Amino acid sequence: MPTSMPDQERPSVLPGDYNPAEYSAEYKLLYLQDLVADKAYEAITEFLEKQSEYEIASLLESFPAQNRLLIWEQVPESIKGEVLAELEYDTRQPLLENISSQEISLFTQDLDAQDISEILDTVTESVRTSVMATLDEETRVQVNKLDTYDDWEVGSYMDPDIIQIRDDICLADVQDWLRENEDLLDDESQELLVVDQSQQLLGLLSLVDLIKHDQNTLVSELIDTAITINDRLDIQDAAAIFRSEDIRFAPVTNSYGELVGQLNGEDIMEIIQDDVDSTMKNLAGVSQDEELFAPILTSAKSRSVWLGINLCTALLAAAVIGQFEEVLAEVVALAILMPVVASMGGIAGSQTLTVVIRGMAMGQIGGSNRVWLLNKELWVGAINGIIWAIIMAFIAQLWFHDIEISAVIGFAIAINMTAANVSGISIPLMLKRMNIDPALSASVILTTVTDIVGFMSFLGLASVLIL
Fold first, then answer.
1. Domain total for the chain?
2. 219, 227, 282, 353: which has the highest count of C-beta atoms within 10 A?
3. How far is residue 367 from each of residues 237, 360, 363, 364, 425, measured CA to CA in Å?
4. Are residues 312 and 233 in the same domain?
5. Which residue numbers delimit the CBS domain (predicted)?
6. pLDDT digits (tens, 9 = 90+) for 182-210
7. Which pTM was predicted?
8. Are residues 391 and 423 in the same domain?
9. Range of the domain at 204
């Protein structure tokens, strides 16, 4: 069945032996919306049984809050814990409000420490204490270890449940141990972490070496170097290391060199996605915590702060325009052309800003290359400014038949686009030095700069050349 089936062809019942992979995410959403509207509880349960925890979490987050509880009640008990761990905080919290600590304990009994820690971050302290008391000693220690880290540190994202072997045993002993504990390895495992008697990380043993070498060989003779990550490192810096080294996982060590966990590629991918989402929201002046189906008042409140800041910057630009009332009253054409100057500068600056913020997030901007980029953007702005200044001057001449107006609009566009490009790189660099997230406030500052420079150059030149 095609994944792009139009709405009118969507069946009211999916075949019992259907393959979920054959249906697009949007198709599943539309189908589930029909089931929810009809309150077809049994059909919802049957549908959800065929979805993974990732798909169910995504579907829950695609519904307004009032429908989520209905869907949640139909989620199979066996995977409710996995689904909770995949949900965003604001989606998870309302679902857990009316669930007892006994039920949460049942949901978490087969989860790893990472997922349990994620869920317990959402509940009250009394519920957390009750659930922690039901965990086995090893899992409880791992959850407590994760909770000692700040949200931005590698340690809060690492997997504390690691497969480690000693360096002073032979390969045959390693194989025997793995056979006795067959659940330790998954399909993606390719290396084992090697430690000494004091838990100091020594390196990696690949599964290929484990198999192909003489089984009497000591592990210490086959250790490969490992790229390690400190548990207190900023998670964004860790993501940059993963990208630059092209690694799938990395052992995590503390300041004493002791192995405390491992950071997996799937965790890094989630971090990168969260960072992209956060950057997009910040650039638009939206709170990082605002979800798509957040309550109306919550969304209105989170956006109003930046709307207020934008109003202040707009009033500042208006104050600049107010200084040139005389020339505007004299030449009406200037009022018509003013938005063109501001718009061209705004677009040019936004292009530079987007590229620079992405480069900063990727760890590609720093040191001497900042000067090179500043020089590059100066010339890019100047070249584009001159090209579009000539084009706009020509259009203005055809429109108003006034060489002075054409010259004013041309010079103003060239000046503003050049200034916009330079501002697009200098503003985020300056904010970073001040320990302010460039994605959060750079766009507002850039808009203010391009408006003020554009209006001042345009109306200032008009005052000189026309009046």
1. 3
2. 353
3. 16, 12, 11, 10, 14
4. no
5. 158-221, 222-278
6. 766 665 667 888 988 888 888 888 888 88
7. 0.64
8. yes
9. 164-264
